[in-house]
């Protein structure tokens, strides 16, 4: 959304020989990502739900563009970390994790997956912005649920780690 600013900032960082990381969900026109990608050292790429209908239900948008952009970045050899918030009842089913595993393991370079346990940290921000928090009753997954999800993804040969 602030492509011009981001381009200038990334270029300035590169001139100062600073490492650059772009944290993105990938929901942007390819032209926007393409215009900054050469100045990005690492993409932290959020994936929420692989099933497009479920993605639309929970985020309000299709994931087609997100997955296409991720595929393109991987094909171009960019360094990626896939960040997946594990959300009980939404993307933690065996089927959902298998879909993620199949897709992630098919990407060139097989980027690592960072599982992030869902939490309510942003609740205060939503309240301040007067925006409806749509998942108030979702609980944080237990450690054994993270382990189960990680083991399913590791079954696809993926490197999996936990984030916070």
* Major sheet: 5 strands, parallel
| Poorly predicted spans | none
Termini separation comes to 26 Å
| Overall CATH architecture | Alpha-Beta Barrel
Beta-strand content estimate: 5-15%
Evaluate the radius of gyration: 16 Å
Number of strands: 5
Any idea what the CATH superfamily is called? Aldolase class I
Helical fraction:
40-55%
CATH fold descriptor? TIM Barrel
CATH class: Alpha Beta
Order of helices and strands: HEHEHHEHEHHE
Number of helices: 7
Number of domains: 1
Instruction: Provide the structure class.
Output: alpha/beta
* Anisotropy-based shape: globular
Q: Strand order across the biggest sheet?
A: 1-2-3-4-5
**Average predicted local confidence, pLDDT:** 95
Descriptive account of the structure:
By secondary structure, the protein is of the alpha/beta class. It has one domain: TIM Barrel. Helix content is about 45%, strand content about 15%. It contains 7 helices and 5 strands; from the N terminus they run αβαβααβαβααβ. A 5-stranded parallel β-sheet has the order 1-2-3-4-5, with helices on one face. Helix 5 (about 95-105) links the parallel strand 3 (about 80-85) and strand 4 (about 115). Helix 5 packs across helix 7 (about 145-155). The longest helix is centred in the N-terminal third of the chain and has 13 residues, at about 5-15. It starts with a helix and ends with a strand. The model has no long low-confidence stretch (mean pLDDT about 95).
